[in-house]
Design goal:
Length: 192
């Protein structure tokens, strides 16, 4: 029993010695937005983050420290820690985008005369979506900003008609991002 207590005391004593180098529990990661838009590129120094003596890594194992001059890659996640002497915090993951993006919508097929709900777009934060439709005969306007509005499908022909939708992401302070495309197809009109 005494040997068991002695072992515990030695372990606690070793932990206390290691923590003596860290003046306080240092486990909180630095503060940062998890997704950030840095227009036109930039480097790690351009990412918004607060903490003490920030160090950046390219993977969560924290084995490859990156210099602050590392160019940002679109859609890449970087890992930041704050340090004090030999003390290191947990990491904060930050995904950087160098241009606004829009997530790819699915193409859609509908029957004639259907009420279609609003189609929501998503992408990088603070992004505005501009869309165009190459065939207003499907019942959708030729263009707009934001999400696709609700509309009623139309097709007065004896063939399937399709509207190709182009969605372009933009940002108030940034370049235009890469557009994505999807189709809305309408089944053949069937007279009542």
């Amino acid at each position: 029993m005494k040997h068991f207590l002695l072992t515990i005391c030695l372990l606690l004593s070793a932990a206390a010695t290691a923590n003596a180098q860290c003046p306080f529990p240092f486990t909180s990661p630095p503060s940062a937005l998890p997704v950030q838009l840095v227009c036109g590129g930039g480097t790690l120094v351009d990412l918004w983050i607060t903490g003490s003596n920030i160090k950046w890594y390219n993977e969560p194992a924290l084995t490859n420290e990156l210099p602050l001059t590392t160019p940002l890659e679109n859609g890449k996640t970087y890992y930041a820690v704050q340090t004090s002497g030999d003390c290191i915090s947990d990491y904060r993951a930050v995904t950087a985008y160098t241009q606004p993006t829009v997530n790819q919508p699915f193409s859609q097929n509908y029957c004639n005369n259907m009420n279609i709900l609003e189609t929501n777009f998503s992408g990088t934060p603070n992004t505005t979506f501009h869309w165009t439709n190459d065939n207003t005969a499907i019942g959708l306007p030729a263009s707009g900003t934001g999400n696709l509005p609700p509309f009623t499908t139309t097709n007065t022909t004896n063939a399937i008609i399709t509207g190709s939708i182009k969605v372009t992401p933009t940002s108030d302070w940034c370049v235009i991002g890469t557009p994505v495309y999807f189709d809305i197809a309408k089944a053949t009109y069937v007279p009542p």
